[in-house]
Amino acid sequence: MKLYLDTANVDEIRQAAQWGVISGVTTNPSLAAKENQDFNTILTSICELVDGPVSAEVISLEYEEMLKEARKLAGVHKNVVVKIPIVPEGMRAVKTLAAEGIKVNVTLVFSVNQALLAARAGAAYISPFLGRLDDIGHNGVELVRDIVDVIDLHDLDAEVIAASIRHTEHVPAVALAGSHIATLPFKVLKQMFKHPLTDLGIEAFLNDWKKADQSI
Ligand code: E4P
Fold it and tell me: To test the ligand 1 pocket, which listed residue (27, 28, 104) has its Cβ within 8 A of the most ligand atoms?
């Protein structure tokens, strides 16, 4: 399972890219709105930092406008993936864009039916939002598992991005559910490194080394 960073914050992306663990980035209008910078500038910077798919979302809900925005976003960099919500006009746009070679990440997916529609329209990526499902008492991880199973069973081309990840426990759960990708907030990515036994182990190794008066 690949790890993407779910943020529009360039400093976070720079750090995570240096660690060598992320393969892409996802943004959304709410994440972009938190940054005090023009979105095209942000998108260009992200694409310079990460050599992998970078999702940027359209704002319009109308077919022609969506196409206009999508083509503009895709023109920023070859790695830009256009994010489109799972609505009928959106799937019409996915079909057109896919035929033009523009990759689309279909977002705000909360059911297997929506995922199937997205895959049939030609989505390259499908983003089920598991945290938001958990918030309303449903099982987000089960949805990810079901969508992956349907994609495999019917030999569909789309990759699943487990999105709306809220904590570290979500990560192994969606990996075991077969998700192709998980997109993580920076906080969750940092927490993934943490284990108390790692900290204790480092401390003991350094103390023993010092006691023995060794050098490298
Ligand atoms: C990613 O594609 C989504 O935009 C993001 O994961 C949504 O997360 P949230 O539910 O925490 O806002």
Answer: 28
